[in-house]
Amino acid sequence: MSEFRRDPITGRWIIVATDTPRGPDDFERERHTRAVATCPFCPGNEAMTPPEIGAVRPVGGAPNGPGWRLRMIPNKFPALRIEGDLNRAGEGVYDLMNGIGAHEVIIETPDHLKDLADLSDAEIEQVIRAYQTRSLDLRGDRRFQYLLIFKNYGETAGASLVHAHSQLIALPIVPKRVKEELQCADHYFEYKDRCVFCDMIQQESDDRERVVLETAEFICFAPFVSRFPFELWIMPKAHAADFGQITEAQIVDLAGVMRHTLQRVKRTLHDPSYNFLIHTAPVTDHIRGEYHWHLEMMPRLTRVAGFEWGSGFYINPTPPEAAANYLRESA
Amino acid sequence: MSEFRRDPITGRWIIVATDTPRGPDDFERERHTRAVATCPFCPGNEAMTPPEIGAVRPVGGAPNGPGWRLRMIPNKFPALRIEGDLNRAGEGVYDLMNGIGAHEVIIETPDHLKDLADLSDAEIEQVIRAYQTRSLDLRGDRRFQYLLIFKNYGETAGASLVHAHSQLIALPIVPKRVKEELQCADHYFEYKDRCVFCDMIQQESDDRERVVLETAEFICFAPFVSRFPFELWIMPKAHAADFGQITEAQIVDLAGVMRHTLQRVKRTLHDPSYNFLIHTAPVTDHIRGEYHWHLEMMPRLTRVAGFEWGSGFYINPTPPEAAANYLRESA
């Protein structure tokens, strides 16, 4: 018998195949080609990208030249542009506005052959600090209501360049998925006077069945309502709505959690494509008590089909309890 | 400059790349292999599927033997099972219930080498009649609140068998995507005393810019808020909430519209994978004035990545006005 499960954070239902669960070896494998050729993210090719916004250069060196350990640049083919006004307008039944926003890239390492999973804890800390720096900086622009940090790894996950990088998009509106989380969290808080994420962390930490790893500051678990096989959420254990306020102790801890998690996923699932993203409170609302920032990670092992598009339901062939177990054992 | 656009039916925003639009030849192509081997949907192999629910056999013949023109069967590997009770329960912060539902397959043709696009109008009518028959029959089961009809064509669209088929899933809950449409349509109706879909049809029919084809009964257009390049919606022009009540005249008309649409998509986009689905009112609510059934079709030309998963936003590289133009010209 499969199972319907409802996410208290979004109200979304999923269907979990609990009778014939698929394990790590039951998915197609994908090859990640790493041809260097003329990679715009490689040292020496800095002129192939727009001028950098910032970089980490431990031994100095001029901007837009080599010697960097991490580089922050505008996306050369941005989904949104930073210049201009929104010009909100109606067109009969429709609403529209100009595609204003920021679209930036964080090049995580100068090494063309490494993914985030292969970096040292110190190097991953550097990436997290770059996320924080860019978040805090972009908040200064009053047009932006939301900052979404995400990473696409592998072709199936939508990555167009193989060199390790993350992206940040600043939006003039709060996206629907985040709104849903905010609304459900508000609703839960109103009813219980508690944060739904905090309650979930407590329950997962007590149960342990879906926990992959837990440190002083963070917990990584396969959510009860995993939409995708081997989906993982990483949450700070201390209540905090705003990723931008992450502490130095948390950065150090999170780097280790991310490295261990990514390595286990890579090893257990044969280096799958994956997406991750950070959900945080909207810019103008970053001290709200009801929300709790977190990182969501989805290995891309299955295809989304007509049923999912039509319903918003997801059919997950691997119960999260089994997924967590595979990943715990790969330690 | 790209553009944000908001769907009045769901409240969903999309980003349309209006400055560097991608045309039909700017997407990867996919090969659709049609190996017969031991296809469970081919005549003579009826024993490879569960016993049929119904079939069209113009010259007679026994059930579960050859001679059929269309066959309706339970899915051999169902996402949900028909036997049992829901047993709604809580588990701490989570809600769950048993995976009760129906999951059926409609084999559209005995011909292993044809897709729906290649069938005659009369054969497509037969498929639509099968959708209607199964919808009306499954309504008798009081556990089901929603019936979703959909089709996955091609590997990228999630099809696991190449032989032309559609699917139907009966659900004990109204899915989130449908709920969103119902809520927004209610809200619009409350404000304007008009159906948002009817207003949209009127506007598209007047504008013509996004219309691909229009007949006495139906309109096919690239929606203003296309999530995907070359997404198409087909809507009955007469207001009707319930697909189950489709008339014989509408079936005949719709068959022609579907054939022309699918053929144009196949020709213009080099036989892409696609999904389509029918959105209709919930079973217990099928006479509501605010809703309007319709078919949504999405060729699968792009990949969904971290930004889309994290935001619920879609970035569409082909403006629907351009898509409609390409498809009109392919007539």
Task: Tell me briefly what this model is.
The first copy, chain A, has one domain (3-329): 2-Layer Sandwich (HIT family, subunit A), CATH 3.30.428.10. In chain A, 25% of the residues lie in helices and 22% in strands. Chain A has six helices and 15 strands.
Overview of the molecule:
The structure is a homodimer of 331-residue chains. With 331 residues, chain A is α+β, with helices and mostly antiparallel strands. Chain A has one domain (3-329): HIT family, subunit A (2-Layer Sandwich). The first copy, chain A, has 6 helices and 15 strands. In chain A, the strands form 3 sheets. A 10-stranded antiparallel beta sheet of chain A has the order 3-4-7-9-8-13-14-12-11-10, sandwiched between helices. In chain A, strands 1-2-15 form a 3-stranded mixed beta sheet. In chain A, strand 10 and strand 11 (218-221) form a beta hairpin. The longest helix of chain A is centred in the last third of the chain and has 21 residues, at 248-268. The radius of gyration of chain A is 20 Å and the shape is globular. The two termini of chain A are 31 Å apart. The mean pLDDT of chain A is 90. The interface between A and B is large, with 72 and 72 residues.
